[in-house]
Write a structure and sequence with these properties.
By secondary structure, the chain is mostly helical. The protein is built from nine helices and two strands; from the N terminus they run H-H-E-E-H-H-H-H-H-H-H. It has a two-stranded antiparallel sheet with strand order 1-2. Helix 1 packs across helix 2, helix 2 packs antiparallel against helix 9 (about 250-280) and helix 3 packs parallel to helix 5 (about 130-150). It is globular.
């Protein structure tokens, strides 16, 4: 359900892409430092967005360095980390663990159970440090699973539940910016849930899995309907974002919010259209 909040790289200045990548690499290294390789492979673009957003808002001191990795074994990569990088790594681990456990309970996916077991020891320590957030996230994930098992068709209700999970991730501090960050996280979470459902609808229908768009998929104008809903969610997300006094990394964040988030939707839509055209030939 993650990996949709990305940059539109061709539209991003080289210096901004290098900055974005340095925070992405920083999160990657932080996950490995705290949780080993099992934590490192949970890295995703959505949490990198959270890192940039919160760093842009709070502007904590940045530690800059270089590193090599398996993907870039020859050229050393620039790495940037802050206290927010550690927070994002912790939130990433909690979400990954409980999502894997839900997948195991729901669809009996052995790989997800195995991965959750690898994360379990570290997760217990992390969730203790964020007890209130963890309890809230676990409760919401359980509610989401319950509604999915019941075949709930209200897409606003379903996406809103996941939106509340992202609220907790965005609410880094209890301060004047918390309400705005929570609303931004809520609408972005709804966007992620709906785009993920749009992406998976064909596969879910074929496998008999739950998807809130299953009934709508066969209707004429389905793609346009989803696009309209996603546009509303992103409009609300951007409205809240523009209330924040963010200057640092602002160009990167706007690239993601106004352009990057649509790259996956357009790619899915294009592929689906091409496949449908082949079937009619």
């Amino acid at each position: 359900m993650f990996g949709y909040i990305v940059t539109n790289q061709p539209e991003l200045k080289m210096k901004d892409f290098d900055m974005y990548r340095s925070f992405y690499c920083g999160l990657c290294r932080e996950l490995k430092r705290k949780y080993g390789i099992s934590g490192q492979i949970s890295l995703n673009y959505d949490m990198t967005f959270v890192v940039l957003l919160l760093n842009g808002l709070y502007e904590p001191p940045v530690q800059k360095g270089t590193t090599r990795c398996i993907i870039h074994p020859v050229i050393r990569q620039t790495v940037r980390r802050t206290e927010i990088t550690e927070y994002a790594a912790d939130m990433n681990l909690i979400l990954t663990y409980y999502k894997c456990m839900d997948d195991w309970k729901d669809e009996k996916k052995l790989l997800r159970l195995g991965y959750a077991k690898l994360l379990e020891g570290n997760n217990k320590k992390t969730e203790t440090a964020y007890r209130e957030k963890t309890d809230r996230i676990v409760s919401l994930l359980s509610q989401l699973t319950e509604w999915e098992n019941a075949g709930e068709t209200d897409i606003d209700k379903m996406s809103g539940c996941f939106g509340k999970i992202m609220e907790e991730i965005f609410a880094y501090r209890k301060d004047n910016w918390e309400p705005t960050l929570r609303r931004m996280g809520f609408y972005l979470g709804k966007f992620i849930y709906l785009l993920d459902a749009y992406d998976d609808v064909e596969k879910d229908r074929a496998n008999g899995n739950y998807n809130p768009f299953s009934e709508d998929y066969i209707m004429e104008g389905f793609d346009d309907k989803v696009y309209g809903i996603l546009t509303m969610m992103m409009a609300e997300t951007c409205r809240e974002f523009e209330k924040l006094p963010i200057i640092r990394y602002g160009d990167i964040l706007r690239n993601i919010l106004y352009s990057g988030v649509w790259c996956r939707f357009q790619a899915i839509r294009k592929k689906r259209k091409e496949e449908q055209e082949k079937k009619t030939c």
